[in-house]
Design a protein that fits this description.
The chain has 355 residues and is mainly beta. 6% of the residues lie in helices and 45% in strands. A 5-stranded mixed sheet has the order 6-7-8-9-13. Strands 1-25-24-23 form a 4-stranded antiparallel sheet, with no helix packed on it.
């Protein structure tokens, strides 16, 4: 029998092969068949106990509440927490999820998905005690379309997918909130200033999306921050990844496009491979998962299949998020009725297993 340390080594070697440039497409399988009450999976994060925490907004059948569920190491489901509804809409639309330095969960509630485009999106903190979710607080209000969440040792970062339209371009961005602020009370951010005036101090950087298709209205999406503090931001409508260097104060030192297109049709959820440092990206439009080398910008397609696949046999079905656990990439198939796709059962989390 292999010892745990040897199993970890095997996983590392396999994952290195996968995201290090292998050109052979992998075939996704079904990791989890979700019941109807978890019909629309999205944001994922791996916790300290190697469980995957999954946000389920239930967009496609909202008679069920928005919840967080746990996928354990045996791919078994346990419900963790029911997220608080917005007082005005009566709904919660959780997308990104992160684990803060305080051990609590931070969830982006994108009210744009329930029809509100008047800065009603929120950041929710789910308070954890002894490994269990016990309560929730609204820690940020005023975001237009909260999407991805990334936590560092001193801050929580949130992408805002569509803040405004200026000269025919969609303006999106990234917010930064220090843990000390969030601990002392709710933060309210000001709307994006379209007249060129001063912006809210929490706005770290902005992106422009010019694509003429409908997804051109979708800007900053997936977010990942490397150990050295380098920030990577997916620009969904441009099918690109921006690399942003920040100084110690969190100010932008440089920002440029790392990769665009080259097989990617959109860039949705994203994670950094803990072994290679490569970026692993869900491509909603392309029904694919890609890896991007952060040094060269080279794009390698890991898995891809036809649109409107129905998720049969584990096929990708409008993937919106990825998560890496051991030698496996888990993929949330949000399966929205968009871009010629029809939402249908089965509701799945796909898994891409390495050789």
């Amino acid at each position: 029998m292999l010892k745990k340390s040897n199993l970890v080594l095997v996983s590392i070697v396999a994952l290195t092969i996968m995201v290090g440039g292998c050109n052979t497409l992998k075939t996704p399988k079904i990791a989890v068949n979700l019941p109807e009450k978890y019909n629309t999976p999205d944001g994922m994060i791996v916790d300290a106990d190697n469980n995957i925490l999954l946000n389920v907004p239930n967009f496609s059948n909202d008679k069920f509440p928005a919840v967080i569920v746990k996928i354990d190491e045996n791919d078994q489901l346990t419900e963790v927490f029911t997220l608080p509804k917005h007082p005005e809409t009566g709904k919660c639309a959780p997308l990104g999820i992160g684990i803060g330095a305080d051990g609590n969960l931070y969830v982006a509630d994108n009210q744009g998905f329930v029809g509100r485009t008047d800065n009603k999106s929120r950041l929710i903190r789910v308070n954890m005690k002894d490994g269990k979710a016990v309560s929730a607080d609204i820690v940020v209000t005023g975001i237009m379309q909260a999407n991805a969440v990334e936590c560092t040792k001193d801050s929580v970062f949130v992408t805002d997918t569509n803040m405004a339209t200026v000269d025919g371009k969609t303006i999106s961005g990234v917010w930064r909130f220090k843990n000390s602020e969030l601990a002392s009370g709710p933060v309210h951010v000001a709307p994006y200033n379209t007249d060129g005036g001063k912006q809210d101090r929490h706005l770290v950087t902005t992106l422009e999306t010019q694509d003429e298709e409908w997804w051109g209205t979708v800007g900053a999406n997936g977010l990942a921050i490397a150990a050295d503090g380098t920030m990577y931001v997916c620009n969904f409508g441009e099918a690109s990844v921006e690399v942003v260097k920040l100084d110690a104060a969190g100010k932008v030192v440089s920002q440029k496009t790392l990769a665009k297109g080259n097989g990617m049709k959109s860039t949705d959820g994203m994670k950094i491979c803990p072994v290679t440092g490569n970026l692993v990206i869900a491509d909603f439009i392309g029904n694919a998962v890609h890896a991007v080398d952060p040094k060269t910008g080279k794009v390698t397609t890991i898995a891809k299949n036809e649109n409107n696949s129905g998720g049969i046999g584990g096929k990708l079905d409008k993937p919106s998020e990825v998560c890496i656990r051991g030698n496996k990439i888990y993929v949330a198939n949000i399966d929205l009725t968009l871009d010629g796709n029809e939402h249908d059962a089965p509701h799945t989390i796909s898994v891409i297993e390495m050789d």
